[in-house]
Amino acid sequence: MKRGVLIVLSGPSGVGKGTVRKALFEEPDIDFTYSISMTTRQPRNGEVDGEDYFFVNRNEFEENITAGNMLEYAEYVGNYYGTPKSFIDNTLASGHDVFLEIDVQGALQVKEKMPEGAYIFLTPPDLQALKERLVGRGTDDPEIIDRRVAAASSEIRMMSKYDYAVVNDEVQLAVQRIKDIVKVERLRVNRILPEYIAMIEELEK
Ligand SMILES: Nc1nc2c(ncn2[C@@H]2O[C@H](COP(=O)(O)OP(=O)(O)O)[C@@H](O)[C@H]2O)c(=O)[nH]1
Ligand SMILES: Nc1ncnc2c1ncn2[C@@H]1O[C@H](COP(=O)(O)OP(=O)(O)O)[C@@H](O)[C@H]1O
Q1: Which family is this sequence assigned to (predicted)?
Q2: Most CB within 10 Å of its CB: which of 41, 108, 121, 201?
Q3: Could you say which ligand is closest to the alpha carbon of residue 77?
Q4: Which ligand is nearest to the CA of 171?
Q5: What ipTM goes with this model?
Q6: Is residue 70 part of a domain?
Q7: pLDDT, tens digit, for every residue of 37-77?
Q8: Rounded to the nearest 5°, which phi and psi values hold at 54?
Q9: What CATH code is carried by the domain that includes residue 10?
Q10: Is 13 in the pocket of ligand 2 (CB under 6 A)?
Q11: Domain annotation covers residue 77
């Protein structure tokens, strides 16, 4: 059976990861399974437990670390964020593509453990645009925004550690670039064109 592709979208807070991910998941020819992260951050208005994140307290998070359940985790601006491991392994083995949207520290930890994924760094056109997006989103206090912009300048320096960089100038352009990257990766992971995978599976029945 063909194996799924691991797609990791990463980049500074406010660059538009969530926005690009939502647009990508609305594409009719895209069928990625989203890896839901665990966090100790408070839910924002409208966020749903088990859909946006698994919201837990610090104790619960630390128990999961000790039990070895996390593929990676990071502490970011005072909260834990992490990726539950078994879900990813099982989904990839069943032939489905897994999509991770995580911060730079986390993505680089995952890359150490699962180098065969497609590691995509989403970058803003410039730092001013990034700050404007964080302000425009209106979800964070000015002090948190300044901390996120400061974190971004060191995160952007990590871009060269990724397989691909995609600029999020226009959401639909970024979506198209990511779709093109996944096509290439599918070919690399399975060493065969996706059109032929369906044919082979049909013959194997
Ligand atoms: N390491 C790691 N980072 C994560 C994970 N999930 C989310 N993040 C990142 O944590 C940072 C803060 O997330 P959040 O508070 O939701 O803010 P937002 O992404 O700016 O909307 C962002 O850069 C997220 O991409 C995860 O499972 N692991
Ligand atoms: N290409 C873009 N051009 C302009 N604004 C954007 C673009 N992509 C996202 N945004 C806006 O930037 C803000 C941050 O986007 P978000 O998806 O929450 O970022 P992240 O998930 O990386 O923290 C949101 O208000 C969003 O509407």
Answers
A1: Belongs to the guanylate kinase family.
A2: 121
A3: 1
A4: 2
A5: 0.90
A6: no
A7: 999 999 999 999 999 999 999 999 999 999 999 999 989 88
A8: -90, 110
A9: 3.40.50.300
A10: yes
A11: no
